[in-house]
Amino acid sequence: NISIALARRGKKVLQIGCDPKHDSTFTLTGFLIPTIIDTLQMKDYHYEDVWPEDVIYKGYSGVDCVEAGGPPAGAGCGGYVVGETVKLLKELNAFYEYDIILFDVLGDVACGGFAAPLNYADYCIIITDNGFDALFAANRIAASVREKSQTHPLRLAGLVGNRTSERDLID
């Protein structure tokens, strides 16, 4: 919804799913798009053989979509996949083509790989609900922002309460 709202306001938007289920962009595109990690595997990890149209798909309201994907359970590091996604998108100059880039990350896993998108951000806005698990994840992301802001011009812009009528814990 946020991606669509921003696109409808004239922004050029890229939504990047960073979940191993690779379902973040499904409602925008109508299908499970190939993941970056699957595309890299097909190209034998030759980054120079990957083109934007291989990994960026047009979604609803003109929102461009990318899915990082991830390894099978117990077979690798999801944070590594996110890092590789950031590396590839940087190689494709994708970070400079958009007004807004949204990363749908697993917030409670704030390792270096999952925090890699913060290296390219000016602001971080955390979408959360009022539940303990979501706020635990929000706190982990906020800690990552605090850490990254030591060396990058990054600021936490705030939290958005999503699908919640209660705000006591968010506040």
Describe the model.
By secondary structure, this protein is of the alpha/beta class. The protein has two domains: 1-107, P-loop containing nucleotide triphosphate hydrolases (Rossmann fold, 3-Layer(aba) Sandwich); 122-170, no CATH class. It has seven helices and six strands. It has helices spanning 2-8, 26-29, 36-42, 52-55, 78-91, 112-115, 132-148; strands spanning 13-17, 57-58, 64-67, 100-104, 123-128, 155-161. A four-stranded mixed β-sheet has the order 2-3-1-4. A two-stranded parallel sheet has the order 5-6. A hairpin with a 5-residue loop joins β2 and β3. The longest helix is centred in the last third of the chain and has 17 residues, at 132-148. The chain is globular, with a radius of gyration of 16 Å. It starts with a helix and ends in a 10-residue tail after the last strand. One of its GO terms (molecular function) is oxidoreductase activity. InterPro entries: NifH/chlL_CS, NifH/frxC, P-loop_NTPase. Pfam families: Fer4_NifH.
Q: Could you report the average pLDDT, rounded to the nearest whole number?
A: 86
Helix/strand/pairing category: alpha/beta
Number of helices: 7
CATH architecture label name of the largest domain: 3-Layer(aba) Sandwich
Cα distance, first to last residue?
Answer: 23 Å
Number of domains: 2
Fold-level CATH name of the largest domain? Rossmann fold
Question: How would you summarize this macromolecular structure in one to three sentences?
Answer:
The chain has 171 residues and is of the alpha/beta class. The chain contains seven helices and six strands. It has a four-stranded mixed sheet with strand order 2-3-1-4.
